[in-house]
Amino acid sequence: MVEFNVNGTKHSFDGDPETPLLWYLRDLAGMPGTKFGCGLGLCGACTVHLDGVAARSCQTWVSDLDGVEVTTIEGLSEDGNHPVQVAWRELNVAQCGYCQPGQIMQAASLLSETPDPSDDDINASMSGNICRCGTYPRIRAAIKLAAERAGQ
Amino acid sequence: MNTYVTQSKPVRGAVTNVSRRGVLLGLAAGTFALSVQLPLPASAEEKLYGGAGMPGGIKDDPRIFLTIEEDGTVRLLCNRAEMGQGVRTGWATVIADELEADLARIRVEQAPGNEALYGNQNTDGSRSMRHHFQPLRRIGAAARAMLEQEAAARWDVPVEEVRASGHKVTHANSDRSFGFGELALAAAERDVPATAELVFKAPEDFQHIGKENINNVDNLDITTGKPIYGIDKQLDGLVYAVIARPPVYGGKVKSFDDAEARKVPGVIEILEIDTPDIPSAFLPLGGIAVVAENTFAANKARLLLEIEWDAGGNQGYDSTEYRKTLEAAAEQPGEVMRNDGDVDAALAEAANRISASYYLPHLAHASMEPPSATARFADGKCEVWTSVQAPEALREDLIKRFELAPENAVIHSMLLGGGFGRKSKPDYASEAAIISKALDGRPVKLTFTREDDIQHDFFHAVSVERLEGGLDENGKTVAWLHRTVAPSIGSTFAPDVVHQSPFELGMGAVDNPFDIPNLRVENPEAAAHTRIGWFRSVYNIPHAFAVQSFAAELAAAAGRDHREYLLELLGPDRKISRAAMNDTAVYGEDPELYPYDTARLRKVIEAATEAAGWGRDLPEGKGLGLAAHHSFVSYTAVVVEVDVKDGALTFPRVDIAFDCGAVISPDRVRAQLEGAVVQGVSLATLGEISFKDGVPEQSNFDGFELTRIDASPVEIHTHLVPSLDYDSPLGGVGEPGLPPVAPAITNAIFAATGKRIRALPIRDQFV
């Protein structure tokens, strides 16, 4: 039995220890905001925060989460107004939007570690997240906008 | 005001009331009276075009699409799939203007699949706004008139004295007003005004249509992770399924052993699903389904299945060999699809002849949301929640497959996490329904893993395009021979299809605008060995790549500047009739309304090259490349700046100029163009599905690579040709940005390095 928090709420799990956090969240916990994209850690759609740091939930076993604070897109902010979410809306980043929860979680993690990221920082942090619609120029701009606001 | 009116398809007999819910307060609550807006039935001989020519036609009764709640909330049903192209935002934008509603109080909902009720719902071909802009204006204007009439009646004043604005109707003379919510219920009982009586807003008065500052209506849901996509559906008692499908197209299950798979904790059921004969159209491929308490357990058990397959006739499909077959076919004459002048004589007399063969591989769609559907087949009723581009195709399949009464096949359309053509085919949703039925009605969510998605896609067709040109002593092109060789999507529906259909040839092959007196287009045979199903932009991708590469090769052969030469090839401004090009498809549009207007292509070429600083001095290793293309009755030109150094290819800047006629949602149009550029970079530099022994060699994003942010163009500048002419027929938006991107890239690499790349993907060919 492992116990961990998801967005501040206590969860416990004693199922198949190899169950990835992604499928726990989506199928067992009823929290489908975290997206399935590839299952191999290649696309970033399933990105969540583990103790505040971005991680691929499809590559994370629930059995390894004892005592860990998991944050998903549903819990990134109480009111949906994390600076990254606000910047995303302001620049109309999303097209289909499916990869954007993962992009936003990755960007939020980047900004918490690197408040004023360079283009190279953005490339290094964000290149694990695929967007098939091709919203990359706006993702870059939105990260810079969020960083600029935070720096003011 | 002279409006361009898309004729509605004739409606015969009664139309059922639209009470989707128990209680509706508003326009949709009214009794559906067949009193208005139904055009006379067209004679059987009359060919219908545009939306009217599609199954279900166009519907424009406001009571079908609009509900106004007591609190004034406007609920707008969108009858087209949203897959990122921004159709929901476009719908709300048009309604806000013509209804005089507050955009923020419009809630867009997806119409269930039902073309008899909602009109055509097939979301592909870049048609949604181009077919629905005028109907949406009629819907908004008619509802506004009904609200105004109701207010005028209550005040007992002439309707001319009242005016709707800002979500209310006001009588200025007496300083009185009613909110929309106060009027809606009674207004819905009024007759819907006839189209001829409607007063439309003048384009110069638009507050939303054509304005840059309109936000995507789904921004909040997307950025907060709301369960809006087909794959997100939750239901009580839901179980989860994956399917082991035949690895080779046309294969069948010979035998299987599921003993080990059944031992996996959480496995509920394992069952065989019938495999169809091929060509199998949009039917499921069959195989062995595993149902479990969660998707992970189902997938884990699937890995333990021991299945013996009968591979069938396509097990020898090999991309390397097939390329040779296509190239050999391209060396021989094919069916003549357009023939101007005498190409053979002109080539024989030419001062200079050049030829080139271009190769483009299969592509997978790989939308980030893989195909997925949730179905519940209980009590004789089949309900499906999914993300499909063509809900009616799914509905028809369910009705036929399970012999259902139409009202017992219910399609709840959810948002698509990308579609790009893959989700025009509803096979995955049929699979979910089949499994739910087999489980006596337990609700089932069927998910394609990424491996399933890439290995069992409907693949964008591989293609060889051979071009030959003759130049006279002045370097002018006097002869053009284009042989296009590729399996047709028709092969997915019927056996022995070896030629492209008119609609495929009308995507940049026969509709060639060049002012060349001797021009022939041929289509040699190509047989399909997998399921063909086009990617976004369809056959324009190979045709534009070949035509726009070869135009640059001709310019180089003539020793001329590419831009100048391309404009000369285009010739004097003129409107070319579709008949003159033997283009019988015209994207389903009326050829009289949509001639090929070469001035529009010229203007986007000029706009893109001017913005990009065409002709400017560039340091070594940098180059500018140009390509222009008409598709989906819109015109696009792209200039790409490449930087080739130290074994790396980067894209410092891209300029894309676009003319789709008048624009509804400029920001969403720009987003489509930006996305088209990135997707064009992706397919040009990396995109390839190759087959070995009948099976795709790629299965996930490690093999089927997509461009990531670090390789995306640094700057993308979009240039929209301004137009206030909202009465003229519109062009498409979702697809036309993509086709010229790849040839602009390879033309830029040629400019930078002198190296001509004729086969995609580019990978490291630029080195």
Automatic annotation (TrEMBL), chain A:
Molecular function (Gene Ontology), one example: 2 iron, 2 sulfur cluster binding
What CDD domains does the database record attribute to this sequence?
fer2
- Return any one Pfam family short name: Fer2_2
Q: Which organism is it from?
A: Paracoccus alkanivorans
* Keywords annotated in UniProt: 2Fe-2S, Iron, Iron-sulfur, Metal-binding, Oxidoreductase
Residue span(s) of domain 2Fe-2S ferredoxin-type: 1-76
Give the superkingdom in one word: Bacteria
Question: InterPro entries under this entry?
Answer: 2Fe-2S-bd, 2Fe-2S-bd_dom_sf, 2Fe-2S_ferredoxin-like_sf, 2Fe-2S_ferredoxin-type, 2Fe2S_fd_BS, Beta-grasp_dom_sf, Diverse_Oxidoreductases
Q: What is this protein called?
A: (2Fe-2S)-binding protein
- Fetch the Gene3D superfamilies from UniProt: 3.10.20.30, [2Fe-2S]-binding domain
UniProtKB/TrEMBL annotation, chain B:
Q: What is the lineage of its organism?
A: Bacteria, Pseudomonadati, Pseudomonadota, Alphaproteobacteria, Rhodobacterales
| UniProt-listed Gene3D superfamilies | Aldehyde oxidase/xanthine dehydrogenase, a/b hammerhead, Aldehyde oxidase/xanthine dehydrogenase, molybdopterin binding domain
| Listed transmembrane segments | none
InterPro entries in alphabetical order: Ald_Oxase/Xan_DH_a/b, AldOxase/xan_DH_MoCoBD1, AldOxase/xan_DH_MoCoBD2, AldOxase/xan_DH_Mopterin-bd_sf, N-heterocyclic_Hydroxylase, OxRdtase_Mopterin-bd_su_IorB, TAT_signal
Q: Mind telling me what this protein is named?
A: Xanthine dehydrogenase family protein molybdopterin-binding subunit
GO MF, one example: oxidoreductase activity
Give every Aldehyde oxidase/xanthine dehydrogenase a/b hammerhead domain span.
224-313
